[in-house]
Amino acid sequence: MPARHAIPQLSVAIVGVGLVGAELISQLLSLPQPSPFTLVSLSSSKRTVFSPSGLEITPSTWASSLSSSTSTLNLQQLALQLSSLDRAVLVDNTASQAVADLYPLFLQNGIHVVTPNKKAFSGSQELYDAILKASKESGARWLNESTVGAGLPVVQTLKDLVASGDKVKKIEGVFSGTMSYIFNEFSTANPGGPSFSSVVRIAREKGYTEPHPADDLNGADVARKLSILARSIPSLQNSLPAGYASVSTRSLVPSALEAISDGTEFVERLPEFDEQFDKMREEARAEGSVLRFVGVVDVEKGVVKADLERYPTAHPFATSLGGSDNIVMFHTERYSPRPLIVQGAGAGAAVTAMGVMSDLFKLA
Ligand SMILES: NC(=O)c1ccc[n+]([C@@H]2O[C@H](COP(=O)([O-])OP(=O)(O)OC[C@H]3O[C@@H](n4cnc5c(N)ncnc54)[C@H](OP(=O)(O)O)[C@@H]3O)[C@@H](O)[C@H]2O)c1
Ligand SMILES: *[C@@H]1O[C@H](CO)[C@@H](O)[C@H](O)[C@H]1NC(C)=O
User: Fold this and answer.
1) d(CA 241, CA 239)
2) In the chain, which segments carry CATH 3.40.50.720?
């Protein structure tokens, strides 16, 4: 056996080479050698490269090697190519529904799937069931750690709690880095404070929001993460037929602005609603609380909701969050009355790619 294959190799195909994908490539190529991974394919939405024995690339050459390729990506063909390899994994670093819809095909062909893309696991029950079935039949695994809390160990912690026989009563947390930043700035223990619209405008200027802030303020991202957590709890696995769309979600997009498709125009109109947000902030403060946009999976009551809630100023959601931190509290039979808490940066390419890497190591 050649020395560089002294340890069994997992063939890695990366689809999506944006912020997270590029960082993942750099983390993979920087691993101490010998590493258990062979990078066999890279794809953007336009181009693809594939070499069954491993791509000859370095951190400084992969991008030009991909952009000079004349092959366009065909996912069916990629599934075929990977199925002829001994052990292979598809890493989906896109936010594409079209890629997510094909996970059952990859899994059927014995190819593992690792992804930070929430689309497949938080959508329709049909797709989710097809993923479960394909994985069960072929033995190929799918891993989703970086879909919730980016690199933070949220999904694995939940899985370990469930597998070890603890009873999860309630999961409660700040799951959106953008909503975290907005409310950490907007609602503090001190009186007064900046207007809601100015906080959103600054968050957008700093690149913390989606280009159209309504895509954060509508709560859908939080609802998607909640449906992934709920489906990872056996008693709730079939409780959300339409995935995130079945989650009770409070949108912070004023209804009068719902039809505005331009992000800049949206931010310009938002000050019209500052008074309403001010009033909510003052009401919370009058009872010694702050506002936080949270997600709740209440297993005992069977409630899954994304909502704007009040928390006392001494609560960890009020005291311990900074920047765009995520925080997740697991209330369980064993972790009672004091919950298990996971907290830290919940967005950014470096930590998200690390979450993907941690899943890859589970397969290595
Ligand atoms: N960034 C974060 O902090 C973070 C945190 C947690 C989770 N995530 C998740 O990680 C994923 C990637 O995020 P990102 O920030 O890296 O996004 P990004 O920078 O927009 O990169 C997306 C990549 O996907 C490619 N792509 C899009 N549609 C495709 C398709 N149909 N087939 C093949 N490739 C396609 C794009 O190709 P082109 O370059 O050709 O357009 C691009 O390379 C998303 O699902 C996101 O929700 C991100
Ligand atoms: C997430 O992945 C874990 C395996 O790590 C699995 O047990 C769980 O069912 C998955 N959940 C979803 C919604 O995909």
Assistant:
1) 6
2) 10-150+351-363
What is the identity of the amino acid at 166? D
Q: CATH for 10-150+351-363, among 1.10.150.20, 3.40.50.720, 3.90.226.10, 3.90.700.10? A: 3.40.50.720
Question: For a pocket test of ligand 2, which of 127, 142, 143 has the largest count of ligand atoms closer than 8 A to its C-beta?
Answer: 142
pTM (two decimals): 0.96
Q: For the segment 43-64, what is each residue's pLDDT rounded down to a tens digit?
A: 999 999 999 999 999 999 999 9
Ligand 1 centroid, distance to 244 Cα (angstroms): 20
**Atom 2 (ligand 1): residue with closest C-alpha?**
348
- Residue 1's pLDDT is 45
149-182: string of b/e by CB count within 10 Å (b at 16+)? bbbbbbbbbbeebbeeebebbbbbbbbbbbbbbb
Question: How much distance in Å is there from the Cα of 143 to the middle of ligand 2?
Answer: 6
| CATH assignment, 154-346 | 3.30.360.10
Ligand 2 center from residue 38 Cα (angstroms)? 25
- Indicate whether residue 176 lines ligand 1 (CB < 6 A): no
Q: Which residues make up the CATH 3.30.360.10 domain(s) of the chain?
A: 154-346
The answer to whether residues 24 and 356 touch, using CB atoms and an 8 Å cutoff, is yes
Binding-site residue set for NADP(+): 16-21
